[in-house]
């Protein structure tokens, strides 16, 4: 496989120009609460069905040739939710890691976690580390779980790391470039997302992958996350393939190609 330069724009499924792609899809899994409310069910049921949608989507992502799937499972702003709902989301994460790690590993999935770990409990931190270490050698899809993640905090932390490196004489200020920043983000070594999907019809990034999204295509789908499946993913990929990515250059038509 083509080596990935941190922060480099990932262009195609093959790493070659002109391929079909996407290599990396990131998803804001939104609409669990509304899915439940429409059925007169508790919000927690929406989240539980959201985990089932996640299982389907991971399988489908590998089958449909993606190399990276990033999911926004708990944002640093989600702490504002009621304590009971936060507890439910944490317990779903625990169950997901405990029950699904084996099957993810059998599928060749490698798990990476991004987000702030400092303020998480020891057992959750240990669980996240276990998910990463137990799957580290897998060669299939990389599932990037954004947990307790906030993009601005990630960028601030990277800036702080660079300042420390400059102060210690390890980094020359003139050597600070996009690659230096990318290498200090939680996503270091992961190609930028080609496509970012948000379900439920909301059209916001909500502090998700702000730096990494520089050249991503966006797709806002009306489907609520618990209803998402391989068919919805295939539709999203088809829309992506129908778009022309120009990276600030001229498109084929404007350039007279
Ligand atoms: C948004 O729905 C979804 C979330 C805040 C969490 C997403 C979590 C899961 C799919 C399950 C957890 C998975 C893991 C691996 C921990 P919402 O509650 O904002 O829905 P609403 O906007 O309709 O209220």
Could you provide a short overview of the structure?
The protein is of the alpha/beta class and 257 residues long.
Would you kindly provide a written description of the structure presented here, covering whatever features stand out?
The protein has a single domain (2-6, 17-243), classed as Decaprenyl diphosphate synthase-like (Undecaprenyl pyrophosphate synthetase, 3-Layer(aba) Sandwich), CATH 3.40.1180. It has 7 helices and 6 strands, in the order βααβαβαβααββα. It has helices at 32-38, 43-63, 83-106, 122-135, 151-167, 178-182, 230-242; strands at residues 24-28, 68-75, 110-114, 142-149, 195-198, 217-220. Helix 1 crosses helix 2 (43-63), helix 2 runs parallel beside helix 3 (83-106) and helix 2 packs across helix 7. A 6-stranded parallel β-sheet has the order 3-4-2-1-5-6, sandwiched between helices. The protein is an alpha/beta fold. Helix 4 links the parallel strand 3 (110-114) and strand 4 (142-149). It is globular. The longest helix has 24 residues, at 83-106. Farnesyl diphosphate binds next to helix 1, helix 2 and helix 3.
